[in-house]
Every structure is written in structure tokens, then in C-alpha cells.
Amino acid sequence: MELSELLYNKSEYIETASGNKVSRQSVLCGSQNIVLNGKTIIMNDCIIRGDLANVRVGRHCVVKSRSVIRPPFKKFSKGVAFFPLHIGDHVFIEEDCVVNAAQIGSYVHIGKNCVIGRRCVLKDCCKIQDNTVLPPETVVPPFTVFAGCPDPHLDLLRNQLGAVELQKMSDWSVFSMVSYQNAHKS
């Protein structure tokens, strides 16, 4: 998957000391419980629900527009409990996704319009194809491609660790700042 260069207007993003870029149009609920480990990009209209439980996001991650990241929950006889969400390094979450997983490993790609059910575990180096719905408590093994709804198992990625790692490391570098005048030229 080759990424094209993404241009953004610097005035529309907040850049932290550790290099995170967070859109001013995104919503971070309970920001004291959200940890972005560095050089992570949160694009416009994203919602991260740190008010429910802790959310930890690794380095060099991208969360594209209109995605919702929220911690998983479990129903008990006396109510509902929320659990922390851990996202690894070099994770790419495309547009319009709802992620309610317990854990997402490193070098994971989640396609457009996906729903990751509550308490799912996505191991390292896996891919979720566009429009996939993962049922609650699904475990996605390493080097696996999932697609479809509701029986999503598709294929196994073999001997691609090096290629996956290199591609994910380069994903973050295509996000470039452009001046306001250049961003609005047609």
C-alpha cells in the first residue's frame, strides 16, 4: 500500500513537544487519561474517549478522519466496567472506523469504515480490510488479513515482516505541513 503525501494546514493542528499532531476539530474526552507516545497524528473529527478508561497510543500512529477510539467495556450484574485500551507503534487507522478493542499490536493497518468489536485483540503485523466488522472478543493472529462481516478471516501474510515494518515506518513521514495559501489552491 503506497501512501500519497498528506498536506495539512499548521493552524488546524496542535503539535506537542513529543511531535504529536492533533487536529483542533478532534474531540479528546478525558484528555488526562490519553497518552500519545510521540509523532502520532489525530486527524479532524476523530473522537478519543479517555473519560471512560485509559487510552495509550504508541509512536508513529495515524488516526484518520471521523474515527472513534474508545476503551472496551464488559457488562456485569452490578453494572458496566471499562478497561484500558492499548495501541502499539506504527498503527494506521483509516477513515470512519469505530475501535472498541482491548489491545492493538504494532504494525497494524485498519481499513476504512471498520468496526472493531469490544475487547478484540489485534496482534502485531495484521491487516483489517475495508468495511470489516469484527465481532466482540475476536483475536486476530499475527500476519493475518481479516475482511468481511461477520466471518472475517481471509488470509495469512507470510514472510512480509520486513516489508510491513518499513512501510509503516514511512507512513508518518508523508504528513507534511503546507502554508495556508498553498493548502487552499485549486
TrEMBL record:
The terms describing its cellular component in GO are: dynactin complex
Check the record and name the Pfam families matching this protein: DCTN5 (PF21711)
Intracellular or extracellular location(s): Cytoplasm, Cytoskeleton
Q: Where does it mainly reside?
A: cytoplasm
Recorded hits in CDD domains, A to Z, give:
LbH_Dynactin_5 (cd03359)
Question: Keywords, A to Z?
Answer: Cytoplasm, Cytoskeleton
> What domain of life is recorded for the organism?
Eukaryota
Q: What family does the Swiss-Prot or TrEMBL record give for this protein? A: Belongs to the dynactin subunits 5/6 family. Dynactin subunit 5 subfamily.
Q: Which PANTHER family match?
A: DYNACTIN SUBUNIT 5
Job description of the protein: Part of the dynactin complex that activates the molecular motor dynein for ultra-processive transport along microtubules.
Q: What is this protein called?
A: Dynactin subunit 5
Q: Which gene encodes it?
A: DCTN5
